[in-house]
Design a protein that fits this description.
The chain folds into 2 domains: 2-163 and 173-208 and 251-268, NAD(P)-binding Rossmann-like Domain (Rossmann fold); 213-242, no CATH class. It has helices at 11-22, 50-56, 71-75, 81-102, 121-140, 164-171, 178-191, 213-217, 226-231, 236-242, 256-262, 270-279; strands spanning 2-6, 26-31, 42-44, 62-65, 106-110, 143-149, 201-205. Helices cover 43% and strands 12% of the residues. α1 (11-22) crosses α7 and α4 (81-102) packs parallel to α5.
Length: 284
C-alpha cells in the first residue's frame, strides 16, 4: 500500500518507516521539517495549506496521521494555544477534507490518552480532532482507527530528555514504549481494510501491565515501596540508583479492546524497563 505519514519526520514516523518498507508498503513522509533521511519518499509541506495536502495525497491508499503539537509543547511553553488549535484541530480538519477530495478513505489517527482530561490545551485540541474524525466517518464513509497511546516520546529524544534518567522518571508512573505504539499502528493499517465506516474504533494503547488490579488497589499497604519490592525484588537496587520513587503508584490503561480487535500485544513493561537501564550500564 501507499501510506502517507503526516508528521513522519518525528520519532514515531522514523520508527515506522523501516517497518512499513519491510512489510512491502510504500511510505511517504509529509512534514513541515526538511528531509534529513536520504532515500525517503518525502513531501515537505504544511497541514495548514490545502494544496500541500492534496499534492501529498496523490496515489495514497491510507494515511497515518501523527502530526500534532504534544503535551510537552504545552508543559514547557514551546507552543501557544493558537498554534495548538491551528495544527491539532484545523490541520486535522484540513487533512480529512483533502482525503475526501482525493478519494482516500482509510485513516489511522494517532490521538492521545490526554483526551480524557478536562483541562489543558493539548487534551482539548486532541479531543476535538477525534470528533472531526468521527464526523467524517459518518458523513463520508471514512474507515478510521483512532489510537489513544500514553506518552511515548522515546528516551533518545534529547530535545525532551537530557538523559535516560529523566525519561525513566517519566516512564515509571505511566508511559508506553514507542515500539509498542508502532506495533499498534502497523496492526491498525490492516484493520482499516476490514472495518466499516459505521464501526467506531477508538483503542487505548499502553505498556505491559506491571501489576495486577488487586496490587494497585492495595498499593504499599505494607509501607512505601513495599508493593514494588515484593513484585520486583531483583530491581530494588536499580530503582534506588536511578532515583525512581517506587512509592508512586503507577497506573495502566485498559488495553483489552486493542488486544481483542487487533491482537495488540505490547512487549515492553516494568521488567524490560529496568533491564534496559541495566543494559545501558546506568544501574547494576
Amino acid at each position: 500500500m501507499n501510506v502517507l505519514l503526516t508528521g513522519g519526520a518525528g520519532d514515531l514516523g522514523q520508527v515506522l518507516l523501516p517497518q512499513l518498507v519491510k512489510r512491502g508498503h510504500n511510505p511517504r513522509v509529509f512534514d513541515i521539517e526538511r528531509n534529513t533521511s536520504p532515500g525517503t519518499n518525502y513531501f515537505c509541506g504544511s497541514l495548514l495549506v490545502a494544496q500541500d495536502i492534496l499534492s501529498a495525497l496523490e496515489g495514497i491508499d491510507v494515511v497515518i496521521h501523527i502530526a500534532a503539537w504534544h503535551g510537552i509543547h504545552e508543559a514547557r511553553g514551546w507552543k501557544t494555544r493558537q498554534e495548538f488549535w491551528d495544527l491539532n484541530v484545523n490541520g486535522t480538519h484540513n487533512l480529512l477534507q483533502a482525503m475526501i477530495d482525493q478519494g482516500v478513505t482509510r485513516l489511522v489517527h494517532i490521538s492521545s490518552s490526554s483526551v480524557t482530561k478536562l483541562s489543558g490545551t493539548y487534551g482539548f485540541t486532541k479531543r476535538l480532532a477525534e470528533q472531526a474524525v468521527t464526523h467524517f466517518q459518518g458523513q463520508h464513509n471514512l474507515r478510521a482507527v483512532i489510537l489513544r497511546p500514553r506518552a511515548f516520546i522515546p528516551a533518545w529524544n534529547r530535545q525532551v530528555y537530557s538523559d535516560i534518567y529523566q525519561w525513566a522518571h517519566r516512564f515509571w508512573p505511566g508511559a508506553v514504549h514507542i515500539h509498542d505504539v508502532a506495533q499498534a499502528v502497523i496492526q491498525s493499517l490492516d484493520y482499516t481494510s476490514i472495518i466499516s465506516s459505521s464501526d467506531t474504533v477508538c483503542l487505548n494503547i499502553d505498556r505491559v501491565p506491571g501489576f495486577s488490579a488487586a496490587v494497585l488497589e492495595h498499593w504499599d499497604e505494607n509501607g512505601p515501596g513495599s508493593s514494588f519490592s515484593t513484585a520486583y525484588p531483583q530491581f530494588v537496587n536499580a530503582a534506588q540508583k536511578a532515583g525512581i520513587d517506587t512509592a508512586i503508584r503507577p497506573y495502566s490503561l485498559d488495553i483489552s479492546e486493542a488486544r481483542a480487535r487487533m491482537g495488540y500485544d505490547p512487549k515492553y513493561g516494568i521488567s524490560e524497563f529496568f533491564e534496559e537501564l541495566q543494559e545501558h550500564g546506568l544501574v547494576d
